[in-house]
Amino acid sequence: MYRKYLILILCPFAFLLLFAAISIGDEKPPIEKKGYIGADTCKGCHEIQYGTYSKTVHSKKSVRGPESQDACETCHGPGAKHVEKGGGRGVDIFDFRKNVDVKDRSAKCLSCHEETRQMASWNMSKHRMKGVACNDCHVVHSGGEKFLKSEESELCFGCHRDIKAQTYKQSHHPIKEGLIKCSSCHDVHGTFGSKQIKADTVNELCYTCHADKRGPYMWEHPPVQENCLTCHKAHGSNHYKLLNKRPPELCQSCHDWTQHPSSPYTSFDIFSSGHSNRMVARACLNCHSQIHGSNGPSARGLHFVR
Ligand code: HEC
Ligand code: HEC
Ligand code: HEC
Ligand code: HEC
Ligand code: HEC
Ligand code: HEC
Ligand code: HEC
Ligand code: HEC
Ligand code: HEC
Ligand code: HEC
I need a surface site. Which of 66, 86, 167, 270 has the fewest CB within 10 A? Predict the structure, then answer.
């Protein structure tokens, strides 16, 4: 006796089934988010960018590769209107050109990268503060290493011409020789250290590669412990061994002539015999060879002679 009710109950389901069948035939795009249209549509007009993007780690790892539909739109924003209007530069699509606000451009990248270790100090970075965006250094459609716009030092030299000049001086850290890179010492994404160096202090940075200079020494030379840059340049110098000045002037900027033998400029030395061992060759270092500190016993160590 409940059979007629059963039909009434089943009726709505029948309608739903019918509706579903029609919908499938309709070929609706699988993306339900409003305004998003899917990478396949973009491919039709931007085959090159689709191709380059597909080869990068972003399409493989970012969870939203071309296989899942809104790959392109993760960075370029919803593209339905752009497509409706037949596309075009700046037509309802987010691009990464210079005239687009720096913060907005970086925000696209930070939406995924903000929480990572590399970006932990981005807010403190001079680059961010001075309006440099992620895509001033990275091109995400290229397959280059770390998506860098060009080889690393070339990239940096593009904006830091003064540093470029320094690395071409007679004595220089072997950057142009390719032994170390700017990023061996700097983290462009920001650090706690001054000048975005990858250590809390200059000395800690230098010790990472010049461990022998850390000591400990029985006899310390105070300026060495204080800051290597008191006597050295970080990038390049026309004096040997990256020195700020040539000895004896370097030494004499602190050790005045009232002390022994830090006054080499007697007329006798210069004009008569002409061979003051405080002036020639390595000058003071002819004798004070352990200038960074010494473990030599007694006064010899004390005076960095041994
Ligand atoms: C009907 C063809 C068409 C489709 C589909 C299309 N675009 Fe475009 N798009 C264009 C044209 C044409 C331009 C202008 C290119 C130019 O001036 O170099 C353009 C420009 C762009 C630009 C700016 C390029 C620049 O030089 O600044 C971006 C970014 C872009 N499209 C992304 C997309 C994305 C993402 C999709 C998919 C959601 C998409 N487009 C779908 C035709 C299309
Ligand atoms: C949808 C999330 C997402 C967005 C948006 C995104 N990334 Fe990534 N990115 C990733 C993931 C995931 C990886 C792979 C990380 C890994 O392998 O550890 C990655 C890797 C990278 C790498 C390292 C590549 C390499 O060769 O090691 C760089 C550089 C990078 N992204 C820059 C950018 C820039 C610049 C932007 C903005 C234009 C951006 N990313 C936007 C998720 C994203
Ligand atoms: C001034 C240039 C510059 C800017 C600006 C810049 N980067 Fe980088 N980025 C680099 C260089 C150089 C490297 C490679 C050396 C390194 O890992 O430190 C790199 C490496 C990366 C890596 C890979 C790190 C790894 O360890 O594999 C990611 C991810 C990244 N950048 C994301 C970003 C994001 C996101 C932004 C913007 C918030 C950004 N970068 C801004 C120059 C830059
Ligand atoms: C991780 C973020 C990101 C994704 C995902 C992404 N783009 Fe881009 N796109 C950029 C950035 C940044 C630029 C600026 C130039 C560059 O970095 O290569 C750009 C530039 C472009 C341009 C301008 C032309 C050019 O080469 O400068 C077009 C067109 C474009 N993208 C289309 C696409 C399409 C199509 C997809 C999907 C297959 C896509 N993008 C996916 C970030 C992205
Ligand atoms: C051997 C380590 C090392 C290398 C390699 C290195 N730097 Fe530096 N850089 C430093 C130190 C140390 C400072 C100064 C830090 C301070 O004064 O507190 C510095 C300072 C800077 C400054 C700030 C301006 C200035 O002159 O003080 C810029 C810009 C800079 N470096 C860019 C670069 C670039 C670009 C490269 C690659 C061509 C590079 N550095 C390679 C160690 C290095
Ligand atoms: C698009 C231009 C641009 C590029 C490319 C660039 N920088 Fe810079 N960099 C800047 C600007 C702008 C400043 C801030 C200068 C100032 O305040 O005088 C800066 C500052 C710095 C500083 C000093 C930070 C401080 O705290 O004073 C260092 C170090 C540095 N950059 C290293 C690098 C390295 C390494 C690279 C290459 C991976 C690089 N930069 C690429 C524009 C750039
Ligand atoms: C990433 C490793 C690294 C860091 C960090 C580093 N150096 Fe060097 N340094 C080198 C290399 C490599 C050489 C070349 C060694 C060679 O030619 O035998 C060098 C050479 C030198 C030289 C001798 C230069 C010459 O003309 O013979 C001096 C001086 C020097 N570094 C000082 C410093 C100071 C000061 C610091 C800290 C600001 C520092 N280094 C940080 C790697 C580093
Ligand atoms: C008081 C000045 C002074 C200070 C401070 C100083 N140096 Fe030197 N450094 C010199 C002189 C002078 C030479 C050349 C020595 C020679 O000709 O034998 C030199 C040479 C070097 C060399 C190349 C030769 C070698 O001994 O390996 C390195 C590397 C070096 N210094 C690293 C450092 C580091 C790292 C610091 C900081 C911990 C530092 N220096 C602090 C004066 C100084
Ligand atoms: C930035 C200043 C500064 C520079 C540059 C400097 N020194 Fe010194 N030096 C000092 C200080 C400070 C002491 C510790 C003085 C003290 O204990 O009375 C010292 C101590 C010494 C001592 C041991 C003195 C003693 O009474 O035991 C010698 C030797 C010495 N320095 C040689 C040199 C030589 C050689 C150079 C050049 C390569 C040099 N110094 C560069 C500041 C400097
Ligand atoms: C011929 C070797 C020699 C040369 C060159 C030399 N010194 Fe000395 N220096 C010594 C000796 C040995 C002592 C220890 C003297 C003593 O015990 O009376 C000493 C002591 C010092 C002291 C300790 C101060 C004092 O009066 O006890 C300073 C500072 C010093 N030298 C700096 C310099 C400077 C700066 C130069 C370069 C202009 C230089 N020396 C060149 C051998 C030399």
Answer: 86
Question: Each residue of 134-176: pLDDT tens digit?
Answer: 999 999 998 688 999 999 999 999 999 999 999 999 999 999 9
If one residue of 34, 43, 46 were mutated to test the ligand 1 pocket, choosing by the most ligand atoms within 8 A of its CB, it would be 46
Q: Give the global pTM.
A: 0.91
For ligand 4, whether the C-beta of 80 sits within 6 Å is no
306 lines ligand 9 (CB under 6 A): no
Ligand 10 close to Cβ of residue 283 (< 6 A): yes
How many angstroms does the Cα of residue 196 sit away from the middle of ligand 5?
A: 8
SS (H, E, C) the chain: CCHHHHHHHHHHHHHHHHHHHHHHHHCCCCCCCCCCCCHHHHHHHCHHHHHHHHHCHHHHHCCCCCCCCCHHHHHHCCCHHHHHCCCCCCCCCCCCCCCCCHHHHHHHHHHHHCCCCCCCCHHHCHHHHCCCCHHHHECCCCCCHHHECCCHHHHHHHHCHHHHHHHCCCEECCCCCCCCCHHHHECCCCCCCHHHECCCCHHHHHHHHCHHHHCCCCECCHHHHHCHHHCECCCEECCHHHECCCCCHHHHCCCCCCCCCCCCCCHHHHHHHCCCCCCCCCHHHHCCCCCCCECCCHHHHHCCCC
Q: Does residue 217 have its Cβ closer than 6 Å to ligand 4?
A: no
Which of 52, 60, 96, 109 for a ligand 2 pocket mutation test, highest count of atoms within 8 Å of Cβ? 109
Boundaries of every domain in the chain: 34-95, 240-302
